[in-house]
């Protein structure tokens, strides 16, 4: 089995910062891509930032210069440092891991999501 678990969400004032973490664990053979998505009420889930299968990073335009994605390969963990947060960043943030399990073919695994609320 594979688990993807996010942490680090919460309530923050506009202009503030938060750091999200996401760890993949279990019977993992290799991780091909890993990233962050978000979904606000009434909206579709959208990409925030991700490490691609080519090993490059991909950021949504609305977070460029404010958010930074990083990773610790030894821990199968990625992070999202979010600075200069705005009320429109309020959403549930989901972690995605596209990986090959020890006994399973490539598949997209999702975490349960962590709420980020930006409000004064």
Describe, in short, the structure shown.
The chain has 120 residues and is an all-beta fold. The protein is built from no helices and eleven strands. A hairpin with a 5-residue loop joins β5 and β6.
Mean pLDDT: 95
SSE succession: EEEEEEEEEEE
* Proportion of strand residues: over 45%
The CA-CA distance between the termini, in Å, is 41 Å
The poorly predicted ranges are: none
Counted beta strands: 11
Helix coverage percent: under 10%
Total of DSSP H or I helical runs spanning 4+ residues: 0
Shape: elongated
**Sheet/helix structural class:** mainly beta
Oligomer: single chain
**Biggest β-sheet strands, sense, barrel:** 7 strands, mixed
As a whole number of angstroms, the C-alpha radius of gyration is 14 Å
Looking at this protein, list some descriptive labels.
120 residues; four-stranded antiparallel beta sheet; mainly beta
Description:
This protein is mainly β. It is built from no helices and 11 strands. The protein has strands spanning 2-7, 10-12, 18-26, 28-39, 46-51, 57-59, 67-72, 77-82, 91-101, 106-110, 114-118. Strands 2, 4, 5, 6, 9, 10 and 11 form a 7-stranded mixed sheet that branches. A hairpin with a 5-residue loop joins strand 5 and strand 6 (57-59). The mean pLDDT is 95.
Task: Give the topology, please.
Layout (H helix, E strand, L loop, with lengths): L1 E6 L2 E3 L5 E9 L1 E12 L6 E6 L5 E3 L7 E6 L4 E6 L8 E11 L4 E5 L3 E5 L2
Parallel strand pairs: 2-11
Antiparallel strand pairs: 1-3, 3-8, 4-5, 4-9, 5-6, 7-8, 9-10, 9-11
């Amino acid at each position: 089995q594979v688990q993807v678990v996010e942490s680090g969400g919460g309530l923050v004032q506009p202009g503030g910062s938060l750091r999200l973490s996401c760890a993949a664990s279990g019977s993992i053979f290799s991780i091909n891509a890993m990233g962050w998505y978000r979904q606000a009420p009434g909206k579709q889930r959208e990409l925030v930032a991700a490490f691609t299968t080519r090993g490059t990073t991909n950021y949504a335009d609305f977070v460029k210069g404010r958010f930074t994605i990083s990773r610790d390969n030894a821990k199968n963990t990625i992070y999202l440092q979010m600075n200069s947060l705005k009320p429109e960043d309020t959403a549930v943030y989901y972690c995605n891991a596209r990986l090959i399990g020890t006994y399973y073919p490539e598949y997209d695994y999702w975490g349960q999501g962590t709420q980020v609320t930006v409000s004064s």
